[in-house]
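W.,

You were right to be curious about this one. When I first looked at the sequence I had no strong expectations either way, so I just let the prediction run and decided to look at it fresh. Below is the sequence, 220 residues in total, followed by the output.
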Amino acid sequence: MATVTRRPRSGVVVLRQVPYEYYVHLTNASANRHLRMAYHDGTLEIVSPRLRQHEEPSVWFRWIVAAICRYRRIRFKCTAGTTFRRGGGAPLKGSGKEADESYYIANVSQLPVGRDPDLEAGDPPPDLWIEVDHRVSSKGRLPVYAKLGIPEVWRYRSNSKKLEFLKLVDGSYKPIDQSLALPLLTPALALEALALGENADDLELMDRLDEWVRRTLPIN
């Protein structure tokens, strides 16, 4: 029988001993699309709708990635908060989650046509996965990303404005100084770009990012 734990301050409900098939059913239900869920080997976390302090940096990261890829002519596809899942071969085994932002870059040509990517059907995972931590830390979810096979994860803590780039190595994540998916980009440079969004409307931020990319990441 599943047990329930509530974390009132974080807005998270944690259910334990939840079969993977039940998690799949919940994520497939259209009525649950507004929720964010993370599943790992029987433990299901359900997060209530997200706040502006979480959503705004997520959007800014999207524009940063788009500005870099557009200027440097890197093909990419944003899969945003698409649910990615991988079963574990037993009722209480498996992993799954929606990213705050996710991207296919190196593997963009392998994306399926006409349907969402499906890891269990043999599609590759996203090349880049971005998490914005506001109410809940994503550190404890790194095993989920590892089971999904995500090669690169960015963790941004909105309260402290700290960012780290992580690379999957032998089943766990290690800090890296430079992005794998977007070469030349470092955590310090990404934070510099992120700061351009402060006191700017959306059009101003897009213009600032275009100028920042041309100045900071020139094409040789």
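Here's what jumped out at me. The first helix runs from residue 20 to 28. And, maybe more interesting for your project: Residues 197 and 204 are 8 Å apart (CA to CA).

Coffee later to discuss?

I.
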